What does this fold into?
Amino acid sequence: MNWTEISKAKDFEAVRMAATELDVNERDERGRTPLMLLLTNHMPVQAIDLLIERGADLEAEDKLGDTALKKAVKFQQKEAIVKLIEAGAKLDSPHGILATAWNLARGRSKEIADLLLGTTGAVRLTLTAEEQDTLDDIVYEQSIQAMCRKISRPDSPVLLHAVVNSYNWDNGPEPMLAAFWNPACPEITLLDMYDLLDGDYWLEHDLVELEESGENTRWRELADGLQERLNRSRKES
It folds into this structure.
């Protein structure tokens, strides 16, 4: 029996026996370790514990670049995520926050992402009732000027992140410029802004062409500011 068959059998005793006879860090044709296979096939957390105790490599990457922690996120294994963190699995990535398990998790489950808040630069995604009320007050504000004032006030990265990701970008650039200039706006929110804005699109346009529309020049101003600040942040890290 091999690790692929064992992981699919979901038999803890088979895992225990295999851990004494087989290499707990061998790789299959996709570069996956036994630990990754157990996570992929939703094995009980006791089996994950056993492989960790037997020296499973927590930082090994498969051909997709996934670690065991990323596999646990992909397959929404909350108990396993906690076990991996307790065992010392690294939360940060040398490739930046967009390559972390936290970033992978936030597109799947806020609850799981919040288990990974130890990640450098991560932002809590689950809002308190008070934060949700404040968010609703901002994003449903009818006056753009009033919305900008409200976005300029918070000193909460959590709230600013929620505002940026809840904003209707068809309402124009001014509220997002207010978020950009708020000192509490974290790097991950700036990255989201650049993506939501489609910053590359605006940077490809000539300023003379954009001057035909005041709003377009403001979108370009936001794209320029985001690119400059993010480049500066990369150089400093």
Remarks:
- The mean pLDDT is 94.
